[in-house]
Specification:
heterotrimer; B: 230 residues; mainly alpha; MetI-like fold; flat; C: 244 residues; alpha/beta; Rossmann fold; 6-stranded mixed β-sheet; 4-stranded antiparallel β-sheet; 9 helices
Chain lengths: 217, 230, 244
């Protein structure tokens, strides 16, 4: 029987790269989608706003695992075969879009109403108001919760192993199947996740403190 | 599409729903008790207890639930603690929820002003009475919405317990899918059930919040009435 | 042609009628002070003039534009109508200079060099040339309000609205803002101002309008109006010393 040694540990460590890659892809695609959804949610058009809030409500009310299964097993049954990496990226992006849309909607709404009034009084169009006045302020407000959500995303990438994609989690499971030294293996896997997530958590908290300090002066 | 094959297995689905609800309920109740205990420990005992609680919360919040579950299910047997899938799931969910709830309740406790405690003591309340009536009750009331959404997230995360062969809702889905080869239909049905469960849980927690902490809803109404003035 | 023409304007918030048929005509170059208690509808009336509030009946014409809900026409109107708010509402993420140059550049397509010269000019008019590169958070309330006035001026408006612009300021800072406004009035700007500064209304405004319960209760040349109130409501208001 194989034992858990340096080669196995290195294999696990390298797979963390895929976890990071998946996180980055889901964050950027999901973020782009989430930004559009946030603005749709705040749109004056009732239909756009309803569609966006419906989408957000549904995605936030089902397990990420189900989104993943639907896009992998479900679509393949309908004849649409997505490779594991694509299915994983797509479902995580959908998950990210709903949560970031909600976080960013909150950030946009916490820009004071008077900023809208002042800029509309200066004859700016709605698009100009977003671009020059509202979004620059909203982005600042949204930084701490966005970084905080990034932690949730990194952790949630761990479920994509179920469709066979070899990320950090899957690598740990593969080594475990070969060596049966689960305690050491999952301690290492957990430590790597922790090494990614803990600095992000601290950063989020630090940013929040900085914001609170600048707001109260 | 043929939903017939899926619907005909409704007793199995119902079983899965029952197990998802039971798992979530037990984890929420136990997790909340544990979290309250840890919050109290942190504020009452010496600082070393506080550090341990803090370290525990950080550790749980910065590692995936799946790793925690596997550590308990696959890792603990190596040091002689053998739990079945269901036991491991309940333990993992409870420990995970407790960490998040501790962090949330702490924010609530921190929002209670010192002068409130002084006022309670000045009214001849005991320390325990102050903790219960002046600190914990209003703190819980304040963070109930945050706790509620954590509970819903936990219920959704219980789907991960299917990875250690627990036949809760998503585990049931995997079996039906293997039996019928109707993947899309199976996952549509199960996803809709999760949706209904999550929305019902949200409504229930909302209702419970209004029942448990009537003063908060009253406050909300008050601020709303003063919010908009010409 | 009057610079501002308000005809029988009605406005409700829910079931509460806040403007009950207001009519007012302002000639170019005139300075009009609108006074009255909180809830008399004075701020609402002012905000109707640049479309920040909609109204249910009546008509408003300002600087040659007819008030409309059409976004494009409303923007054209707003290029000619400046407003200064009680809470300054500067854009906190932009410097003073950027605050002033933004709208001329992007809504009127003023070339950069011209916008810069314009910004320096209006900033000099409010006496804050040295603050061009400062951020609003680093200015006093009075300075922020003067920048807000400069920002409006950079649009080269035909009419300017002032909504209780000194109410949020400490008493020692109101003077510097009022001096800037007085200079503007003397330079011939058409101005409507909602104010609690009775002394300023009496000395600077040509006409003072007293609003009460959603109506124009009394109006006339400022000095006469304050010296001889015709209604008990106005005389009570003047005697109460203009507190809100």
């Amino acid at each position: 029987m194989q034992t858990f040694g340096w080669p196995e540990a290195l294999f696990i460590l390298r797979s963390a790269g895929w976890t990071l890659a998946l996180t980055a892809i889901a964050f950027f695609i999901g973020g782009a989608l989430g930004g559009v959804l946030a603005i749709m949610r705040l749109s004056r058009s009732k239909w756009l706003s309803r569609f966006a809030s419906g989408y957000i409500l549904v995605i936030q009310s089902i397990p990420v695992l189900m989104v993943l299964f639907m896009s992998y097993y479900g679509l393949s049954a309908l004849g649409i075969e997505l490779p594991p990496f694509l299915a994983a990226s797509a479902s995580l992006s959908i998950y990210v879009s709903a949560y970031l849309a909600e976080i960013w909607r909150g950030s946009i709404e916490s820009v004071p109403r008077q900023q809208w009034e002042a800029s509309s009084s200066l004859a700016l169009t709605t698009a100009q108001q977003y671009r020059y006045i509202i979004l620059p302020q909203a982005v600042r407000i949204s930084l701490p919760p966005t970084v905080g959500f990034l932690v949730q995303l990194v952790k949630n990438t761990s479920i994509v192993q179920v469709v066979g994609f070899v990320d950090l989690m899957r690598a740990g499971m593969l080594v475990n199947n070969a060596t049966y030294q689960a305690f050491q293996i999952f301690t290492l896997v957990g430590a790597i996740y922790f090494a990614i997530c803990f600095p992000l958590s601290r950063l989020s908290r630090h940013l929040e403190k900085v914001m609170n300090a600048s707001r109260s002066h | 599409m043929l939903f017939q094959d899926v619907f005909s297995r409704w007793p199995m689905i119902l079983n899965g729903v029952g197990l998802t609800i039971a798992l979530s309920f037990i984890a929420i109740v136990l997790g909340l008790v544990l979290a309250t205990g840890m919050t109290a420990l942190r504020s009452l005992a010496g600082s070393w207890a506080g550090y341990i609680v803090d370290a525990y919360v950080e550790l749980m919040r910065n590692t995936p639930f799946l790793v925690q579950l596997f550590m308990i299910f696959f890792g603990l047997p190596q040091i002689g603690i053998r739990l079945n899938g269901l036991e491991a799931s309940i333990l993992a969910m409870t420990l995970n929820l407790a960490a998040y709830a501790t962090e949330i309740i702490r924010a609530g406790v921190d929002s209670i002003h010192r002068s409130q405690i002084e006022a309670g003591l000045a009214l001849a309340m005991s320390r325990w009475q102050v903790l219960k009536h002046v600190v914990l009750q209003p703190a819980f009331a304040r963070v109930w919405p945050a706790l509620s959404s954590q509970f819903v997230l936990m219920m959704l995360a219980s789907s991960i317990c299917s990875f250690v062969s627990v036949q809760e809702l998503s585990g049931t889905a995997a079996i039906i899918e293997q039996d019928t080869f109707r993947s899309f239909e199976t996952y549509i049905v199960v996803t809709v059930i999760y949706l209904v469960l999550a929305l019902s849980l949200k409504l229930f927690l909302n209702w419970l919040g209004h029942r448990l902490f009537p003063q908060v809803s009253g406050l909300a109404r008050l601020t709303e009435a003063h919010g908009e003035a010409a | 042609m009057p610079a501002v023409l308000i005809e029988d304007v009605h406005k409700r918030f829910g079931s509460l009628e806040v403007l009950k048929g207001v009519s007012l005509s302002v000639e170019p170059g005139q300075v009009i002070a609108i006074i009255g208690r909180s809830g008399s509808g004075k701020s609402t009336l002012l905000r109707c003039i640049n479309g920040l509030e909609t109204f249910h009946a009546g008509k408003i014409e300002v600087a040659g534009h007819t008030m409309t809900q059409d976004p494009k026409k409303l923007r054209e109107l707003r290029k000619d109508v400046g407003i200064v708010f009680q809470s300054y509402n500067l854009f906190p993420h932009l410097t003073v200079g950027q605050n002033i140059m933004l709208s001329p550049r992007i809504t009127k397509n003023v070339p950069d060099a011209e916008a810069l010269a314009l910004a320096k000019d209006v900033l000099a008019q409010v006496g804050l040339s040295e603050k061009f590169d400062s951020y609003p958070d680093n200015l006093s309330g009075g300075q922020q309000q003067r920048v807000a006035i400069a920002r409006s001026l950079a649009m080269q408006p035909k009419v300017m609205l002032f909504d209780e612009v000194t109410s949020a300021l400490d008493p020692e800072l109101t003077g510097e803002v009022l001096i800037v406004m007085e200079k503007l009035a003397k330079a011939g700007m058409t101005m409507l101002l909602v104010t609690h500064e009775m002394n300023f209304a009496r000395t600077v405004a040509d006409t003072t309008v007293f609003m009460h319960q959603g109506k124009i209760w009394e109006q006339g040349p400022s000095k006469e109006l304050f010296a001889n109130p015709q209604t008990p409501e106005l005389s009570n208001f003047v005697r109460a010393g203009a507190s809100h």
